[in-house]
Amino acid sequence: MADRAKRQSNIELLRIIAACGVIILHYNNPNIGGGFAAVNDGSINQGILTFFESLSICAVNLYVLISGYFMRDSMKRDFLKPVELIAQLIIIELAFCLIKELPKGSGLDFETVLEYFTPSYWFIFVYIALYLISPYINLVWSHLNDSGKKNLLLILTGLFSVYAVIVDIVQYYYQNDIYGASTIGLFGSQSGYTIVNFVLVYLIGCYLKDCEEKGKKTGTGKLVLLLALTVAAIFGLTFLDKSITGRAIFDTTAYNYEHPLVIIEAVLVFLIFRNINIGSSKVINKLAVASFPAYLIHMNLLEYCGVEQFVQENAALLTAHILGCTIIMYLISFGIFLIYDLVTKPLFAVIAKHWKKRTYSVNI
Predict the structure, then answer these.
(1) Among 32, 220, 234, 288, which has the minimal tally of Cβ within 10 Å of its Cβ?
(2) Is 23 exposed, middle or buried (0-12, 13-18, 19+ CB in 10 A)?
(3) What's the confidence (pLDDT) of residue 3?
């Protein structure tokens, strides 16, 4: 939802990659794509899925971090933008629901329709909440000096990332729910699927923008090395959790969105792409418009990818299948969005013209 006119193609490319990361996460998800559920325990293919999971787990945080980086100075929000997101969700999901369910001949009921909207699209609603309150976050941030900003980030990171994960780890290893011990909620951190984590990552994006304006920059080589170490640490933690608890490889605190390593991974990936100078690419900028629609559309396509079959194939074929499915689903999402945009753009133009008080600004 940030002002895309100010963005460079390197960040637009990162948005595409983040969307592809989400697709990979859902490819692996035992309840969506089914990768982790079908792969043989202890196999090379399980290691491949775990590697891609460890590399992609920062994708959601990347979306939020990019928003903080670009929206830091904006005190104005448009109510039409959340409406457009909700409209995309409703129209696209209803279309897939009708296309997939009606041929079954069993009719539609409320429960069946509802399954197309929850819980997989939690991100939309939490992100909309962040979008609407972000001007107030920006206002507070703009009135802090450098020391105040650093202290705020340290406190928030300590409370809602480090401590929250420690509580989760204790609960995980001892298989004992410590109700009320977490700083995030009664039932723990909810793996970072919360507005709390979004606000933290958003502010980190604001801080990275501050650092850029002050000329602070880290070399790409060093960033790549740190990223490799971070991915290796996340990868290793998943197997450590499995070896100690005997649980499934995907059942790990290392994949919590509020985990310090996952947040660090998002920061490193962002900084690497910020250092890349590819100028302005019309192709990349055009393809990037599907980064959000891809989140909606791919969920309806994964069942046709034959994930359960390919996780039993050789490692090279599985790797090719993961990457191929990800790219193809993104391109299909791009095509569907172009059709959607062509149909709905005139409608939203009329709404924008007649909705006189759809924006608000925060000032003091």
Answers:
(1) 220
(2) buried
(3) 47
pLDDT tens-digit profile of 282-309? Answer: 999 999 999 999 999 999 999 999 999 9
CB 85 within 8 A of CB 128: yes
3-state secondary structure of 361: strand
Please state the three-class secondary structure of 151-219 as a single string. HHHHHHHHHHHHHHHHHHHHHHHHCCCCCCCCCCCCCCCHHHCCHHHHHHHHHHHHHHHHHHHCCCCCC
CA atoms within 13 A on the CB side of 103: 5
3-state secondary structure of 346: helix
How many domains are contained in the chain? 1
Q: Which residues of the chain have pLDDT under 70?
A: 1-7, 364
> Which amino acid is it at 260?
P
Beta strands in 168-298 (DSSP E): none
Strands 76-78, 359-361: pairing is antiparallel
Note the pLDDT of residue 357: 81
The number of residues making up the chain comes to 364
Give the pLDDT score at 362: 86
Cα separation, 117 vs 295, whole angstroms = 12
Q: How far apart are CA 189 and CA 81, in angstroms?
A: 29
Both structure tokens of 233: 């640490």
- How crowded is residue 54: how many other Cβ atoms within 10 Å of its Cβ? 23
From first CA to last CA, the distance across the chain in angstroms is 24
Domain range for 323: 4-361
According to the model, what pLDDT value does residue 157 have? 98
